[in-house]
Amino acid sequence: MRWLDHRETVAEALRGAVIALGNFDGFHRGHQAVAGDAIKWAHEEGRPSIIATFDPHPVRFFKPDVAPFRLTTLEQRQELYLAAGATAMLVFHFDADLAGTTAEDFISEILLKRFGAHGVVTGADFTFGKGAKGNVDLLRGFGAEHGLQSRVVDAVSNGGVISSSRIREALREGEPQLAAQLLTRPFAIRGIVEHGDKRGRTIGYPTANLSVENYLRPKYGVYAVTGKVLATGQVLKGAANIGIRPQFEPPKELLEPYFFDFSGDLYGQEIEVAFHHFLRGEAKFDGLEPLMAQMEKDCAEARRLLSAQPHD
């Protein structure tokens, strides 16, 4: 799948595309509806389809100190967009230049001149351009006058409008199943397995330690998870703690999955850990024995819950 940079001229074969325009971080059901409409339109007219995203997220650019809130990495998004059927992913690199681009220039200079876009599909609340002055009305008016067609997809509801904010709230509240329902897949953190202090190994629960980096922090605690080894596609079941490990000093924020019935070496491997069920909050125990007893209970519950649902 092509990975396009908005600052570069697009290849001739990708000019005349239909672009799904938005941030599409979580690529939840609402985002999928916008992208699906763009892909369908492109197929009907024999055109390429492109799904856009912004990196960094505009909120991160304007408020660099805001707490991490990403639901996916660019690599995860690329795989999701490819699975949806898009020809390419377009990354708008959000910097001072892009932030200062007027909505009219965004349409005429970037979408039309640089990319030769035939049409765009957006959600009804999408805004763009300097001061977020661009909206669907400007696309319909100014865009149409300059030869850009546009379509708008209404918000998708499921007990309320589906949004990235709602998904983030569910994860922060320890409701990964609700988040998965809105996303159409479990929330998953991807990273490289790091060497840790090996404490888990000494008590019979060796973990694959991952940095949480720029991902949204779900509620700290223990979860039933699955892990996927990206190099091999192997899927593992397990239990994971995410948090600051209050049992040990010094506190260190980590995602620590323990995979059942696995004895291989994952150091240096890239894995993706998917959150299926919240088991309990993070806690400090009066010594290692009660900690180990609780971990045994956690693993038994995680096995039970994961055995009740199919996994690839």
Q: What can you tell me about this protein's structure?
A:
- Strands 1-4-3-2-5-6 form a six-stranded parallel β-sheet, sandwiched between helices. It has a five-stranded antiparallel β-sheet with strand order 7-11-8-9-10.
- Strand 2, helix 1 and strand 3 form a beta-alpha-beta unit.
- It has 312 residues and is of the alpha/beta class.
- The two termini are 23 Å apart.
- It is elongated, with a radius of gyration of 22 Å.
- Helix 7 runs antiparallel to helix 8.
Quick summary:
The protein has helices at 29-44, 58-62, 74-84, 96-99, 103-114, 136-145, 164-172, 176-183, 199-202, 288-307; strands at 2-5, 18-20, 49-55, 88-93, 119-123, 149-153, 188-192, 221-229, 235-243, 254-259, 270-281. The chain is an alpha/beta fold and 312 residues long.
Class computed from helices, strands and strand pairing: alpha/beta
**Spatial extent as radius of gyration:** 22 Å
Q: Can you count the helices?
A: 10
- Main sheet: strand order: 1-4-3-2-5-6
How helix-rich are the residues, as a percent range?
A: 25-40%
Query: What global shape is seen?
Result: elongated
Write the layout of secondary structure elements.
Blueprint (H helix, E strand, L loop, with lengths): L1 E4 L12 E3 L8 H16 L4 E7 L2 H5 L11 H11 L3 E6 L2 H4 L3 H12 L4 E5 L12 H10 L3 E5 L10 H9 L3 H8 L4 E5 L6 H4 L18 E9 L5 E9 L10 E6 L10 E12 L6 H20 L5
Parallel strand pairs: 1-4, 2-3, 2-5, 3-4, 5-6
Antiparallel strand pairs: 7-11, 8-9, 8-11, 9-10
